[in-house]
């Protein structure tokens, strides 16, 4: 539509295995040693564990922290960083009108309770009655709150006071793309002025690895770059939130843009059809790129699973643009991966530079020009193709 | 000729098809007959053993051939039945080709106990079972289908394939407000001009022993086990919790212009929607009811009408002591003195609380209420709560013209969405 407004990114909150905040990430990205990975704790799997975070800094009440499981803490923390970054922390008036779209999974089992039940259940005369008894006696009542997808958003409302609206999207990788897309669409169309969008993922969970293991798509150690030879999903703990804002609203409160979010596209290829993913991602990149190649790079949020990532690599190779793999640096955070990649894209565009290539990731080549635009791509491990365009605001 | 835009100049969004499944039955006709007869779908649980459980009743959907499979299996089947009914009524598109996006509210999804038990047994562990054993068994690759089944996106993905909706479907949850959020996303997409039609579905077939126990541990469920049909008592003095239940609701949304152009019958107008989140507590609503007041007022403002224009309220009315009191407080602030005389009722008195699906089912019932000029009752209203004096259309359906309905939904976790529906474009 022609009457769409610009959408600025005026705040970013990011936590990952590389640390917290934009500057810590920029420093870490400048020295591309091997990423922060754990190859032993969850053997045979490799994952990117969360850097040490002092949760008190964004979630001051210990009582609040106790009511959350790690994925919710990571997200609530990242959301707080984003609000700080946008200069909104404690601004009750604006937070009461801030719209929120959160991409979330859920779950987080009490693995001790589950293990104890599974150890004994088959010896019972009536296994189902035994199961009910055990759950009734041993489940923490508040664990339920840590399991529900919409309770990350609930916690952000409680801890940070964001109450304009609250929606939670699920559906793995695509939920992160759609959370950003819906927040962006509403501001672009003039029906929202400011939105907090993002997601969080805790990779340090055997119950989530189990879901991947059923299809043998979790990456086994040793760690390896995903674009050159995708062998599995290297999951990573991370949380990322963006504050999206109309230029009018931002200027009225004296806020400066970090970058402009110029478009978000969410699609669903027919995975059974040969070439379908490639063709779709090709088209999405062409749409995002337009006629401009100069100063433009692709940041891939590839999942690392063999087939979808091979298709993503084929499409981004053809685009003829410098490429960087976000997943190589911080791992794959499922629902949060598109927001994480967008955070790094906005950071790079705001610096006007692309971070250094990673050794062994042959698609990554040196780029010394001024970076003004970044196209983020992400093909989900099972479904969902997402592309977004971030541009510098001059 | 009628205008295609509303007072705010936005495309008018109408409903051209609706479908539902609840514990009372499948389809609008069957459900409506039972709802206006004041029948309850709440019964003793047979899906799993109830020995030792504090709550032994529910509104599970047990009449389908395949009831009792995993929660996502049943949720998907319920959604599919409701959507098929809605699309057939609407006559939109062609078979397997729905000309718009899908917004689908789904319950929590995770690998369940039957799968864990199989993996534990297959792991043949010698000592205590841990998740490492389950992981080892999973990597054997004999249960690949479980991966897809227990992804959050799989229900909507399968429905998108079946009905041929456009683009990537959005799976969503705002807990008990989810159904209204699925409708809201469709309204917004049509108003923005992103599409001319949308399919909004909300489904919940997730009553397992563990789900029941989790709600029970939070003291949210009724323990009026003796007489299941009389257990759900919204707004009564002796209400003591909600009844967990299953079902699905689906709506075909279209711009008025699109619907008129293809000569579709319009069964209702989605005039306004409002939302506001609560920052008070994870399970309790703000005692001053400010968020629900804000949410109802936002819906009125969005529709460009006032509280005086509302003829009937389809209440959230869960039958928990706290919700019904808080909802009364909120409605009193919005409607003032009039609140004692506006008819309102809670469908949950008959079908229980279908959680993720509730708001979509209640939107379908609201449209039926307008169309039939009959308000379904709040059953089991034997002992009025003097603290919340309301006209709950007690126990017996009422014939009266209803032009505009407010349908409330307040989510566990603080997400509130209010919908305004009318029969015909203004």
Concise synopsis of the structure shown:
The complex is a heterodimer of chains A (394) and B (426). Chain A is built from 15 helices and eleven strands.
List the helices and strands and how they pair.
The complex is a heterodimer of chains A (394) and B (426).
Chain A: E1 8-16, E2 19-20, H1 22-30, H2 62-66, H3 70-85, H4 92-95, E3 99-103, H5 111-120, H6 127-138, H7 143-147, H8 151-160, E4 165-170, H9 172-188, E5 194-201, H10 206-213, E6 238-245, H11 247-252, E7 259-267, H12 276-289, E8 296-300, H13 306-318, E9 323-325, H14 326-330, H15 337-351, E10 373-379, E11 385-391
Parallel strand pairs in A: 3-4, 3-5, 8-9, 8-10
Antiparallel strand pairs in A: 1-2, 1-6, 1-7, 5-6, 7-11, 10-11
Chain B: E1 13-22, E2 25-26, H1 28-36, E3 43-44, E4 57-58, H2 71-90, E5 102-105, H3 113-123, H4 131-138, H5 144-149, H6 154-163, E6 170-173, H7 178-192, E7 197-204, H8 209-217, E8 247-255, H9 256-261, E9 268-277, H10 290-303, E10 312-314, H11 321-335, E11 344-345, H12 348-351, H13 358-372, E12 374-375, E13 398-399, E14 404-410, E15 415-422
Parallel strand pairs in B: 5-6, 5-7, 10-11, 10-14
Antiparallel strand pairs in B: 1-2, 1-8, 1-9, 3-4, 7-8, 9-15, 12-13, 14-15
Helix pairs in contact in B: 2-6, 3-4, 7-13, 10-11
Structure explained in plain terms:
The complex is a heterodimer of chains A (394) and B (426). With 394 residues, chain A is of the alpha/beta class. Chain A has helices at 22-30, 62-66, 70-85, 92-95, 111-120, 127-138, 143-147, 151-160, 172-188, 206-213, 247-252, 276-289, 306-318, 326-330, 337-351, and strands at 8-16, 19-20, 99-103, 165-170, 194-201, 238-245, 259-267, 296-300, 323-325, 373-379, 385-391. In chain A, strands 1, 2, 3, 4, 5, 6, 7, 8, 9, 10 and 11 form an eleven-stranded mixed beta sheet that branches. The model of chain A has no long low-confidence stretch (mean pLDDT 96). Chain B has 426 residues and is an alpha/beta fold. Chain B has two domains: 13-110 and 150-422, Peroxisomal Thiolase, Chain A, domain 1, CATH 3.40.47; 113-149, no CATH class. Helix content of chain B is 33%, strand content 18%. In chain B, helix 2 (71-90) packs parallel to helix 6, helix 3 (113-123) packs across helix 4 and helix 7 crosses helix 13. Chain B starts with 12 loop residues before the first strand and ends with a strand. The model of chain B has no long low-confidence stretch (mean pLDDT 96). Chains A and B meet through helix 5, helix 6, helix 7, helix 8 and strand 4 of A and helix 3, helix 4, helix 5, helix 6 and strand 6 of B.
């Amino acid at each position: 539509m022609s009457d769409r407004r610009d959408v600025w990114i005026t705040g970013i909150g990011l936590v990952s295995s590389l640390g917290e905040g934009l500057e810590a990430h920029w420093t870490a990205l400048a020295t591309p040693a091997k990423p922060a990975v754990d190859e032993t704790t969850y053997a045979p799997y490799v994952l990117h564990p969360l850097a040490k975070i002092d949760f008190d800094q964004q979630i001051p009440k210990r009582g609040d922290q106790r009511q959350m499981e790690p994925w919710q803490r990571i997200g609530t923390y990242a959301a707080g960083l984003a609000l700080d970054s946008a200069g909104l922390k404690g601004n009750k008036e604006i937070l009461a009108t801030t719209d929120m779209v959160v991409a979330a999974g859920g779950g987080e089992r009490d693995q001790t309770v589950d293990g104890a039940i599974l150890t004994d259940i088959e010896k019972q005369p009536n296994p189902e009655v035994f199961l009910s008894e055990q759950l009734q006696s041993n489940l923490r009542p508040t664990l339920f709150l840590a399991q529900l997808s919409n309770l990350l958003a609930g916690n952000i409302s409680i801890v940070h006071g964001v109450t304009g609206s609250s929606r939670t999207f699920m559906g793995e990788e695509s939920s992160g793309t759609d959370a950003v897309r819906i927040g962006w669409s509403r501001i672009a169309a003039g029906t929202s002025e400011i939105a907090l969008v993002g997601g969080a993922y805790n990779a340090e969970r055997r119950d989530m690895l189990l879901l991947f293991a059923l299809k043998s798509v979790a990456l086994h150690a040793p760690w390896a770059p995903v674009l050159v030879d995708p062998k599995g999903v290297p999951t990573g703990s991370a949380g990322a939130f963006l504050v999206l804002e109309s230029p009018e609203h931002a200027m009225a409160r004296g806020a400066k843009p970090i970058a402009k979010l110029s478009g978000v596209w969410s699609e669903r290829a027919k995975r059974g059809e040969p070439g379908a993913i490639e063709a779709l991602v090709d088209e999405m990149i062409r749409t995002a790129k337009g006629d401009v190649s100069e100063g433009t790079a692709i940041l891939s949020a590839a999942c690392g699973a063999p087939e979808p990532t091979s298709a993503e690599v084929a499409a981004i190779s053809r685009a003829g643009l410098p490429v960087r793999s976000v997943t190589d640096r911080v791992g794959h955070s499922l629902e949060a991966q598109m927001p994480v990649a967008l955070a790094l894209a906005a950071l790079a565009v705001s610096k006007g530079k692309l971070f250094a290539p990673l050794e062994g990731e042959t698609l990554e080549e040196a780029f010394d020009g001024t970076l003004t635009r970044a196209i983020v791509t992400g093909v989900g491990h099972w479904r969902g193709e997402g592309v977004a365009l971030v541009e510098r605001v001059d | 000729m009628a205008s295609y835009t509303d007072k705010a100049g936005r495309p008018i969004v109408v409903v051209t098809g609706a479908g539902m499944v609840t514990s009372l039955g499948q389809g609008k006709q069957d459900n409506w007959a039972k709802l206006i007869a004041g029948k309850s779908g709440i019964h003793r649980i047979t899906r799993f053993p109830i020995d030792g459980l504090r709550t032994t009743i529910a509104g599970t959907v047990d009449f389908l051939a395949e009831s009792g499979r995993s929660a996502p299996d049943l949720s998907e089947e319920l959604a599919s039945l409701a959507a098929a009914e809605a699309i057939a009524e609407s006559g939109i598109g062609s078979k397997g080709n729905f000309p718009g996006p899908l917004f689908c509210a789904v319950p929590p999804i995770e690998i369940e106990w039957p799968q864990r038990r199989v993996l534990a047994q297959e792991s043949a562990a010698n000592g205590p079972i841990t998740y490492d054993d389950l992981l080892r068994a999973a990597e054997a690759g004999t249960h690949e289908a479980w991966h897809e089944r227990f992804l959050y996106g799989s229900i909507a993905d399968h429905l998108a394939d079946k009905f041929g909706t456009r683009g990537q479907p959005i799976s969503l949850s705002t807990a008990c407000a989810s159904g209204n959020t699925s409708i809201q996303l469709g309204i917004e997409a049509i108003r923005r001009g992103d599409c001319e039609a949308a399919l909004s579905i909300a489904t919940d077939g997730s009553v397992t022993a563990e789900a029941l126990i989790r709600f029970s541990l939070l003291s949210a469920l009724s323990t009026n086990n003796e007489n299941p049909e009389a257990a759900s008592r919204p707004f009564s003095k002796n209400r003591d919790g909600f009844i967990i239940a299953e079902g699905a609701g689906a709506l075909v949304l279209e711009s008025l212009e699109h619907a008129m152009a293809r000569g579709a019958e319009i069964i209702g107008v989605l005039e306004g929607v409002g939302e506001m989140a609560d920052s008070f507590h994870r399970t309790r609503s703000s005692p001053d009811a400010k968020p629900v007041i804000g949410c109802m007022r936002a819906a009125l403002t969005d529709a460009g009408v006032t509280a005086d224009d509302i003829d009937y309220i389809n209440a959230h009315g869960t039958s928990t002591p706290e919700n019904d009191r808080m909802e009364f407080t909120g409605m009193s602030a919005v409607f003032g003195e009039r609140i004692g005389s506006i008819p309102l009722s809670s469908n949950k008195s008959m079908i229980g609380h279908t959680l993720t699906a509730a708001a979509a089912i209640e939107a379908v019932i609201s449209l039926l209420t307008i169309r039939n000029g009959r308000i379904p009752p709040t059953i089991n209203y034997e002992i009025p709560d003097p603290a919340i004096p309301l006209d709950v259309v007690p126990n017996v359906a009422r014939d009266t013209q209803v032009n505009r309905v407010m349908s409330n939904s307040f989510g566990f976790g603080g997400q509130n969405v209010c919908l305004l529906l009318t029969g015909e474009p203004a």
